[in-house]
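ARCHIVE RECORD
Type: protein–small molecule complex
Small molecule: nicotinamide-adenine-dinucleotide
Source of inputs: curated submission
Record status: active
Notes field left blank by submitter.
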Amino acid sequence: MGLLDYDSIAYAIGERIVELGGRVIYTAQNERMSRIFLERGAREAAHARRDLDVRYCDVTIDEEIRKLFDEVGPVAGVVHSIAYANPRTCLGEEFHTDAVADVLQSYHISSASFARVVHYAVPRMPEGGAALALTFDTTRVYPFYNWMGVHKAALEAIVRALARRHGRDLVRVNAISSGPLHSKAASKIPGFGKLDRIWSMSSPLPWDTRADKVEVANAAAFLLGPLSRKITGQILYVDGGAAIITGELQPHELDPSRASASAAP
Ligand SMILES: NC(=O)c1ccc[n+]([C@@H]2O[C@H](COP(=O)([O-])OP(=O)(O)OC[C@H]3O[C@@H](n4cnc5c(N)ncnc54)[C@H](O)[C@@H]3O)[C@@H](O)[C@H]2O)c1
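STRUCTURE (tokenized, with ligand):
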């Protein structure tokens, strides 16, 4: 769930599942957005597949989530790859905001909706299954990320609460904490380029904000499939290792190409 265009993490995960022999039903927020972003993208992106099964679901409308899972029938897993926060009020240089309604809306979309999705998805997993959310490092406080950082912390708490609740249903609930990746949502984060730089200076493994989407998709396939049958309530970091590092890596810890970039003024 959360297909906006061919840069969406949801698309990368779906493609990987298809490569591994699975069948994928995508959801987009609504038909209008799908027309604008997905159809235009299909003309531009060489790798775009046009035969996608796309349904519509606005996760702030409970009835749409219920109807979606009524219609899809049995599923092995569900991925919540959805977030939104008004960039003018919830992200940026100033953390404080008067726009409390925007904060609550972004919490609803980015955090609480995962619980509603899982609520309606679990009955469609009669023999058990997996639910997965996408988060971003909540162990540190990043510039500009403001309320989305708060909502990701809530999302991770919801992952753990759902893992406790749905063990009895044999449904595993986990999240992937991804490093920064190029997408529409990321492009709306003021100062996203700075996150990119933070990663290039703090990730022990090289991190590519475009190419490494596939690594997130690989981890998603693992967490959705049988190889992770006893893993639940976990946040799996797919971030090149940046979240464990304090400050920047030292020049002697970098490979030569990154060391020369870090030395540049
Ligand atoms: N891109 C990154 O750097 C990065 C890093 C870590 C985590 N994430 C997380 O990955 C997930 C996917 O983001 P992305 O980077 O693929 O961006 P994206 O813009 O492609 O996806 C965000 C999706 O959320 C959907 N959405 C927003 N409001 C909605 C609503 N009310 N109902 C239904 N859908 C709604 C959008 O339509 C879009 O499809 C998000 O949870 C994001 O926070 C992204």
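CURATOR ANNOTATION: Residues 100-121 form the longest helix (22 residues).
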